Each structure stands twice: as C-alpha cells, then as structure tokens.
Amino acid sequence: MSRALISTERLTKTFTRHGGFVFSRQPSVYAVSDINIQLSEGETLGIVGESGSGKTTLARLLLQLEKPTSGIVRFRGRAFGELNGREVREFRNTVQAVFQDPYSSLSPRMRIGEIVAEPLVVARGLRGQIVQRRVGQVLEQVGLKVSTAELYPHELSGGQRQRVAIARALAAAPKAIVLDEPVSSLDVSIRAQVLNLLRQLQRDEQLAYLFISHDLSSVRYLCQRIAVMYLGRAIEEGPADAVLSGPLHPYTQLLRAAALPRWKGQPGVQHSYRAAEATLPSKANDGCNFAPRCPQFNATCLRSAPLRRETRPGHFVACHEC
Amino acid sequence: MKIAIDEQNRLVASARRSGRLPVIPVAILVLLLIDVIFAGVIAPHSPYATDLSKRLIPPAWLPGGDVSYLLGTDLVGRDLLSRLMTGARASLGVALATIFVGGTVGIVLGMVAGYAGGRTDSVIMRLVDGSLSIPVILLALVLVSVREPSAWNVILVLSLVIWARFARLVRGEVLSLRERAFVALAQVAGSSSARIIARHIFPNILNTVIVVGTLQVGWVVLLEASLSFLGVGVPPPIPAWGSMVADGRAHMLSAWWLSLFPGIAILLLVLSLNFLGDWIRDRLDPRLRQV
Questions:
Q1: What is the ipTM of this complex?
Q2: Which domains does chain B have, with CATH numbers?
Q3: Within an 8 Å CB–CB cutoff, is residue B198 touching chain A?
Q4: Less Cβ crowding at N or C end of chain B, within 10 Å?
C-alpha cells in the first residue's frame, strides 16, 4: 500500500442557510456528508457527480479553504489541527490546486511570471534568479513560451490561462494537485490538449491527482480510481474500469447511461429516470437520499440509509439493492 | 431607420465626447496647483498687509479701480486677488490632505472589513454607519469649540466624515474580489492574509479608489468652504475662500466683489474637479457611474 498523502475520516460540512429576519435560522444543508477518501502518492482519484453534489466543497475542505463541520482531514496521517507551522508550510508545498474558471484564477493585475512564481516565493521563500529559471522551466513544461511570463492574463486565451494555472501549480514541485473541473470551461479541442498535458505531467512527475469532474470520459481518461458523489455522499467508489463498466449503484448506472450511451459496445441501458428533482439534503434523512429519483427503490430505502460496503476488493457501494 | 441611425450617431458622438480629456477644467486645476505652490512668490501683494487708505477699491475695470489691485481690495485694504491666490492653499490643500488621510484610513479599514468578514466587518461597518449619520457641520462646531481652530482640525473633521465613504465602497469591492479563484489559489500557495490584501486585493481596487478619490475632492472643497463660511474652518487671518465669502456678505450691495470672486473661485474649482473626476471614471471604470 502506497503512502496516503491526504485522507479524510467521516468528513462532513454543513452550511447554515441564513434567511428571514436576524435570528431565524434555516436548517443546515449537508454539502459534504460522511466522506472517507484517501489520495496516495502517485495515484489519480476521480470525483464525479452532478452539480450540487458537493464536489467543490470537498475540494475546498481538502485544501483547507473551509473548516469541516465534523470529521478529520489528515495530511500524511496527521490530523490538520495538530500540524505545526512548518508542517502547514510543508502541506502548502505538497498540495496545489487548479480551478475551473481560468479567468478568475489569475489575478488581472499581476504578470504571468509573478503569478507562477507565487508558490515559490511564498511557501518556499525563494527569490531572484532561481525563481526566474523555475518559472521559465514550468512554462515550457506546460507548452508555453518562456516570454509568456512578461504578459498579463488578459493577453491570453482561456486554454493558455489554464496552462498558466497548471504551471503555477507545478512550480513548487508538489506531490499532489487538486483539479477542480480543470477542463470544463474549455472548448473541446483545447480540452483534449489540456487532458493530454495533465496525463503527461502525471507520468513525468509522479503526481497524485484529485480530479473533480462531471465528465465521465475525461475522468476515465485520467483516473485509476473513481468516487461517485450524490448530494454530499460518496455512493460508489472503486477502480475506474470496474465502476464505469460495471456500475453497481443505480445513480452511477444513470450517470453512465446519460454520458456514455454505448460504453464498450454494451447496449445503452434504458433507465426509467424518474422526474423528481434532487431533494436538498436539508437534514440527515432517515432513508436513502437517492430514493426519490431511484428507479429501483423499495420500502427499505425509505426507512434507512444504506451503509457503505465492499462488494469486491476495493469496490465500495452504498445501496440496499445492489 | 433614420431614427436608429441618428441614435447611433448620437451615441458615437457622446462616446467620443466622454473620451476626450476635459482641457479647460484640467488647465484651471493645473493653474491652481501652481498657485498653491507658488502663491507666496507670484501674488502681487501680501495677502495680510492692511492699508486703510486703500480700503474698498473696486475691481480695476470699474470707475475708481486701480490696475495694481486687479480685483479690488477689502475692508482693511488687503488685495483681493492676492488673498484669493493664497486662499487656494486652504481650499485645495485642506481638501487634498483630507482625501489623503481619510482615504488611507477608509481604504485600509474597508479592505480589512471586507476580507476578514464576521465580527470585524460588523464593527467597522457600524462605525461607518455612525460616521455617515453625524452632521458634518455640527461635528466641526463641537470640535472647534473644544480645541483651537486650525487647519489640522479642519482636516481631522473632514477626514472623520470622508473615510466612511471610502471604507464602504472598498468593502463592497473586496467582498466580490474575495470570492474570486485567485484569492483561494493564493491561500493554497500559503500566502498570509496581509500578503493577499497587499498583492491581490489592493491592486484590483486601485482604479475604483482613484475614481472615487477624485470625485470626492470637489465635495470636500465645498465642505471646507462651508466650514470657513461658518467661521469654524481655517482660522483668520489665513485667507480661505469660504470665510472670504462670509466676510463680504454684509457688504454685498456696496462692495459685491468681496463675496463674488471667492464664490466664483469655489465654483470653478469644484466644477473642474467634477469634470476631471467624471472623465477619469469613464476612462477607468464606467461601472461606477452611480457614485
């Protein structure tokens, strides 16, 4: 078993909806609920799910941009609250991120060179020539000219900006990158280029990726393991091939049927997709929270929430029916 | 069809107009700035020297006027032009100092409130509400009756009012900037809050601050004039345009020039500042039109 870089234990984040007048509080929304995942060195883990399933909140929790409501995030086995200053800096050097929107990812008033150099300057405390050299190096690594460093973000296209964002993430030679929908806002031809670049970098640098996406084909292209999220819960998790070619959970089946009508020559499965909206997970329901949309639900599903169990080695599912 | 084309031409023309530097206002402001710096050297007479034999000389082009006293003299025979030229210091100097002091405080507190959020934000914003609800004139009267009247007191009073406008605007800008991905990425890189505010937030609010700063100068000039008019501004014998208007008020019928020329000076200064401010706003940030 390779070493775990980041792992979570029963990680939960709720948001309190403030509404109405001064003190009236709405019930909490479970954005992320009871998540146990692990990202090991050199591994690529895909997180898939529809919008609102808590993928981005999960990313923000792992990056320590949000505090969990309950549960623990561990860095190399140590809970976050216990890290000292040096270890926090170590974490900032080790884990970087690339976000969805390449337009808001780059500060409009900084030159590309400064943007890419920031992790080196801040977390590594480097200055001068070394920084310049490293910036040029990573810019070339992502397929940009060294002279790009002199430009401002508005002089670049969306695809170039996303390459800059990737270069910045690489600058401090991290072990892991959290990629939150890194290609979703790019058009198709550029998307393929960036995915290729990400795969290339992963091989060259032995990077671990936490790749968040709603696009099953790019997840399949990049990831060894997949976790499927629905309304804040990880409902199925396993090796990418197993999950996508033999999905167990009805939601994963629906997702696959919608995204990949003919997966590896199998006939597209016709699912009766019940036209219910995803109910907001406003309280920890007693039943399975997919039940309102599930084509296979029964009385048990309404009574109790399914527990996560291992059906095959490394393949987990949370469903009563499968 | 014709109407549509006319409308389009009109829009194009107005866009061109707004794009041109307002030459006359800028010229006036440049002259005034030169005057503020060199008033002591270029003023034809001393603004303080009284000469009762030369009291109430009308402007040079009127019967009884004297060319060496271009705009006439006041009740104690001081040259009005020299007093106006020196008075620019009080008006513009106090206004610029106020914008600098109040602006700096407002920007810093606004950025802290917007970035920190929570309790810090609430406290600062309640202070803003408070200072915006205090009548300026009343505050000035109280302060001057407690302390000696001085230019510094005027700057203090006006800064106490003006900082809140900056703070509120800056906070709003920061609230939206804070949610942008580059701020989160700076945190991921390990940047401290101070670094994020200085390197990522401040450069992005600078345009807004410049625009609002210029537009507020005119307002502060008017406030300073009001305070001097009421006798709680820059103390005599230092000439200030507001107090010059007030001094001439009693002689409006016989010696109208005493109040009229300082009044015109205030008008020209404020108008020029507003034209310049509008132009800078349109150039840098047309979104701020309602400010």
A1: 0.84
A2: 18-51+71-290 (1.10.3720.10)
A3: no
A4: N
